[in-house]
Amino acid sequence: MYTRHKILRILSNNDKIDREKPFFKKTYKGQRTIHLAKIEADGMKVLKIKKEDWAKGLEKIGESCRLLGPLKDGEFHNFKELGRGELPDFNFQNTRLSPKSIVYPQSEKMFDYTLDQNDPDHDILKEAEKNYSSQVVMGIRPCDAKAFSLVKLNFDSPEYKDIYWLKRFESTTLVGLACHNPCSSCFCTSAGTGPFHSEALDMLLVQEQDRFLAQILTEKGEALAKIAGWTIEAGSNAQEQITTMKESAEGRITSFISGENLKNKSAMEIYEEPYWEDVSFSCINCGTCTYLCPTCWCFDVQDETCGNCGIRIRNWDSCMYPLFSLHGSGHNPRGQKLQRVRQRFMHKLKYFLDKYDEGIQCVGCGRCVRYCPVNIDIRRVCELMNRSEACPVTI
Amino acid sequence: MLEYTEKIREISKQLLKDCKVDMVIGFRKGTIPMMNEPTFIKSANEVGQLVWDSNCGINLANYLTNRKENIGIIAKGCDSRNICVHLVENKIKREQLHIIGVPCKGMIDKRKIAALFEKEILKVEENGEKIVVEGDGTVKVFEKKDVLQENCAICIHRNPVIYDDLVGDLVEEQKDVDRYEDVRKIEAMAPDQKWSHFDDLLKDCIRCYACRNACPLCYCPTCFVDESRPQWVGKSIDPTDTRTFHFLRAYHCAGRCTDCGACERACPVGIKVRTFTKKLEKDVKELFNFEAGLDPDVRPPLDVYKTQDPEDFIK
Question: A319 partner at 20 to 30 Å CA-CA among A279, B137, B142, B201?
Answer without folding.
Answer: B201
